[in-house]
Amino acid sequence: GVDRALEVILALPVDADGWRWWDDVRHSRPIITGIAVADPPPEYPLPSSLSWTYEHVVSGVWDGWLPISLYPYALIEDGDHGLALAVSLDSPRLVKLAYDQEKGRYEARGYLGISPLAVKLDGQADLSLELYRVDPTWGFRTAIERFAVRHPSWFESSRLAQGYVGYERGHYGSEIGARQVLTDDLKGIFTAEYIVADAPLKDGSAITEPLPTYSDTIGLVEALESSSKVSEQARGKAITRSVTYDPNGDWQIKHVGEYPWAPGVWEVCWATSTDPDITDGWGPLLWDWVVNPVISATEAIGAVLDGVMMDNFMSAPGVDTRPEHLALTDTSLAYHVATYRPGVHNAANMHEFFIWLRERMDARGRDDMAITVNFWGVGTPNGLARHIDAFGGEGKSKTGASTNWNPRILDYRRAIAYHRPQTWANGDPDLTLGDVREFVNLALFYGILPVRKDEATGWEEGADQLITDTRQVLLQFRPAEWEPVTHAWSDNSAVWVERFGTAQDRDEDLFFTVHNTLVETASFTLTVDADALGLLTPQAMEVTELTSGEAMPFEVEGGLVLIRGDIGSLDTLVFRLAAYRFYLPFICAG
């Protein structure tokens, strides 16, 4: 056999002239054949990769341009009928979903590789897609819901990561660390041992010295391997065996420089494979030298480590062409976009690592432990989402909003997390009360637990209280879980609505978060479809706005609940709809 890079196109002929293409839950575009594709929304940084296709794309690699879909599903509809196209999330693949208006076809474009070096794959690569009908009434939201209903195991977690008052990550292997876990247990705080798929090393030189060369950085690894400390030898060996190769056979460096978490020194970070089949590799190192010892250390004092947290989750997606790694992979290959060399995408080895890690934790008697991540990647994490029990995040809400804290990204992350909890740590320094208020309001709208990072210094007095107050409101509705189809709407297009909870006439409350996207006060009417939500006696409900604690008047008209109000600049309100409950008297027989 020979190496082959494959761009596989699976297409369905569809005359969609006059239909709509949905980019996400808030944006759609008309499909008009014979002219260039309508521009995507202005807040989207990337246009379609081809002028005649409707698509919503990001790059599947960090060192080039390989357009893949941001979401794992796409939707076109004509107002009466909806047709969704989706890629399987059973195993990660690089796929672009699009409508080609020039050729009149609904298509999936998969980027696959075949190599004789990948002996476990027997010269094969595969791609699995789904085509399903949806009611277009709720647009993209229905496509999300239908996909999740069809595959609940990809979007649910049996590990109870909800219900905690806070979430912490750290290194807990020492006596002090283990005792911190015990303290957090008593406070109801979730603790996760920190792990990372990359291999960072400090070179020890002050930044007044020249930046280390490529040879210098390899020398750091060689020094570890020859260290007298067994732990350093293991780390050096793991890097050497797991570091990924570019097509030239060079070690791939993720970054080298000075960073906020390592001030005053040069840090180099290697891109490594976490494939657990690499003997003495980075994946096994994370279990043997990090996670397993921490489980032992915490159990020894009666503490409970709640999970692990993978940092920088898919922040630098790339393709590894190292021959030894191709020989070990169990997942279909991709290819290097600049050279068309088949290789292993790091989402593939992360997929294999998470399966292996879960098996190790279960075998250890810790099937209650959760796998959590610091959710940085876009698009490429989709095929890994089924392994994740909770999604963290971090960034800068003001100076870094365009990167990791904006509605386009938050809508995406909410959809992928689905019912699972989310947190977000803000590291922006010198924020005013107005800045922090804007941050917590957006977090509240999406059901994300807001956190202030240690390096977020210089915040205006009163900011921490805003964080605390927001968390108190959020914890009241967080267990209800996000639902993509709201069955509720605002008459003001600038006032957005999300839903948490399912009623269906059960003894459960419903929650609706309402967010004003304007910098001025807005009036609105929130309409809730009681019939669609299974609320049989909406007149008997109690409606409370949680941020103020005030009872809200409402009207019921023809199966619709109407709540009218005003909402401040960039503010978020939370409405709890509590079903009327019958309580039987307690009779004591004497």
Number of helices: 11
Biggest sheet: strand arrangement:
26-28-29-35-31-32
Global Rg: 25 Å
Number of DSSP-assigned strands: 35
Gross morphology: globular
Low-confidence stretches: 581-590
The span between the termini is: 86 Å
Strand content: 25-35%
The biggest beta sheet reads: 6 strands, antiparallel
Structural class: alpha+beta
Mean pLDDT across residues = 94
Portion of residues in helices?
10-25%
What does this structure look like?
The protein has 590 residues and is α+β, with helices and mostly antiparallel strands. Among the domains are: 4-154, no CATH class; 198-271, no CATH class; 486-578, Sandwich (Immunoglobulin-like), CATH 2.60.40.1180. Helices cover 23% and strands 31% of the residues. A hairpin with a 2-residue loop joins strand 33 and strand 34 (560-567).
What is the element layout, followed by pairings?
Elements: E1 4-13, E2 20-22, E3 28-30, E4 53-54, E5 57-59, E6 67-69, E7 73-77, E8 82-87, E9 95-100, E10 105-114, E11 129-134, H1 140-150, E12 166-170, H2 175-187, E13 189-196, E14 199-206, H3 214-225, H4 230-242, E15 253-259, E16 262-270, H5 282-299, E17 307-313, E18 319-320, H6 323-328, E19 334-335, E20 342-345, H7 346-363, E21 370-375, E22 390-392, E23 394-395, H8 401-404, H9 407-417, E24 422-426, H10 433-446, E25 448-452, H11 463-477, E26 482-483, E27 488-490, E28 495-500, E29 510-516, E30 522-529, E31 542-545, E32 550-551, E33 555-557, E34 560-567, E35 572-578
Parallel strand pairs: 12-13, 13-17, 17-21, 21-22, 23-24, 24-25
Antiparallel strand pairs: 1-10, 2-3, 2-7, 4-9, 5-6, 7-8, 8-11, 9-10, 14-16, 15-16, 18-20, 19-20, 26-28, 27-30, 28-29, 29-35, 30-34, 31-32, 31-35, 33-34
Helix pairs in contact: 3-4, 4-5, 10-11
